[in-house]
Specification:
With about 500 residues, the chain is an alpha/beta fold. The chain has 22 helices and 15 strands. Among the domains are: about 140 residues, 3-Layer(aba) Sandwich (Rossmann fold); about 170 residues, Nitrogenase molybdenum iron protein domain (Rossmann fold), CATH 3.40.50. A hairpin with a 4-residue loop joins strand 2 and strand 3. Helix 9 runs parallel beside helix 12 and helix 15 packs parallel to helix 16.
Amino acid sequence: MPINLKTPVVESREQRLGTIVGWDGSASELARQSAYARGCGSGEGKGCGQKARRICELEGPFTQGSVCSEMMVENQAGHILDAVLIQHAPIGCGAGQVSYNLRFRNGLAARHKPVQNIHQICTNLTERDMVFGGVAKLEQSVRDAWERHHPKAIFIGTSCATGIIGDDVDGVASAFEAELGIPVIPLHCEGFKSKHWSTGFDAAQHGILRQIVRKNPTRKQDDLVNVINLWGSDVFSPMLANLGLRVNYVVDLASIEDLAQMSEAAATVGFCYTLSSYLAAGLEQEFGVPEIKAPMPYGIAGTDAWLREIGRVTHREDKAEAFIAAEHARIAPRLADLRRRLEGRKGYVATGSAYSHGLICVLRELGIEVNGSLVFHHDPVYDSQDPRQDTLTHLIDTYGDVPHFSVGNRQQYQFYALLQRVKPDFILIRHNGLAPLASRLGIPAIPLGDEHHAVGYQGILNIGESVLNILAHRKFHLDLAAHTKLPYKKWWLEQKDPFALAKRVE
C-alpha cells in the first residue's frame, strides 16, 4: 500500500500493515499465518495468487498498562535539536517530558554533542477548553515557542482530547507557517486511533516527509547513508566507515538540516524495522533514496547480508567483503569462548517485534537456548512489502523455531505465566516496566537502554558479555524472590495460559 503524503493524517498500523497486539503460539505458526502479507479472510494476498492469511487476534478484557502514539511523537519530534514540539493536550500528556528529557540529554552526551534540554511545550488543556475549544491556547503556545527558541521548525502533536473536541490544528499550523516562514507541522497522533504506539513513529515521520525533507535536491551525496535510530550510541559510523560511507543519524538527536538532506543520501538503513519502516519506505517512494532490503544487522548471518546489500546499493562490494572477512576473524576467538561459557543457558526476549527477532538471532549465535519470547506487537508486513525484510522468517530459517512466541502489549498480569512456561536464566528487555516482576521471580534482566548494544558483529560479543555479567548477580534476584510476594491471587497464579482471560467466553 503506497504511502500517501497528500493528507496530514497518517494511516494507523492496523490499517496499513495489519498490526496486532495479542497472539500466542510458535514463531513458525505466526509466520505461516502472516505469510508476510497484509490481508485477512479469503481475499487474495500480495497480488501473487496466494490466499491472504488471517491472524486471529486475542483481545483481552482490559489493558493493564502501555504507552500511546503521542508519546512516540514526543521521542521523535521532541528530540530534534533545533525544533520545538507543542503537545496540544492536557498537562497529564506532558508528564513524559521528564523521562524523555533524561534520554535526550544522555543521548547527546553519548554522541559527544552539547547537552541541552528538550524544547517541548504543553498547551495545558482544561475542562473549560474541552467545552469551548483550545485553539487560543494553541496559538499562544506557537507564539511562545517562536519567541523563546526561534526554532527552525515547530511540530504540533495532537492528543485524545483534541481529537475529541476537533480543534482545527491544521488551520493553525498553516497560518503560522505563512506568518513565521518556517515549517509548522501538524502531527495527528491521538492515542485512541491506534492500539499500538508504533503508529506514533509513523505520524512524526509522516510530517517530516511532507514538510521537512528537501524536495528536488540539487545534489546527491553518494557516500551518505541515513540511519534511522533513537538515541543509541554511535556504532554505525565506525562500521560504515569501513565501506567509505558517512552516517546521517535521524530522527532523534538530529537537526532540521540533517532531516532535510535525507533526500540526498545514497541509501537508508535502521536498527529496527518497527521504527524505520515508514520513513525508509517514504524516502524511497517519494525521493528515490533506496531502502536497504535485507535482514537486520543482528547475528553473523544477518549482518553479513545487511553489509553485502549496502555494498551492492552503494557500489562498494569489495570493501564490504573485506570488512566482513576481517570482522569474522576478529570476533572468532572471543565468540568461541563465550559460547563455551554460556552453554546450557536459557534466555528470554521481551521487546518490540522486529527488534526481538534480531535479539533472538544474537542469543542463538551465542549458543543460548531461547524457547520463548514476548513481542509487544506484530506487523505481518513492513511498508516496503519486500520479503527480504521478513525478519521473523529469517530468524526461523537461520536459527530455528521459537516454541513459545507470544504477542502482548506489555501486560504485567500475563508476564508471570509467560516466564513460568520456559523458566529462563535471564531476560533481555527494552521497555523495562516488566523487569521488576522478573526479578521477583528470581530472573535477572538486561535492560537495553542503548538500542545499538546488540548491533553488528561487536553486538554479539556485547550481549555475551552482558549475559555473563548479569548471571554473576543472579543470587541477588533469587534472594529477592525468596522474600517478596506477588500481587496476584492464587487462582491467577495457577493459570497455565497467560491469555486465559482473552479466551474465556463469558
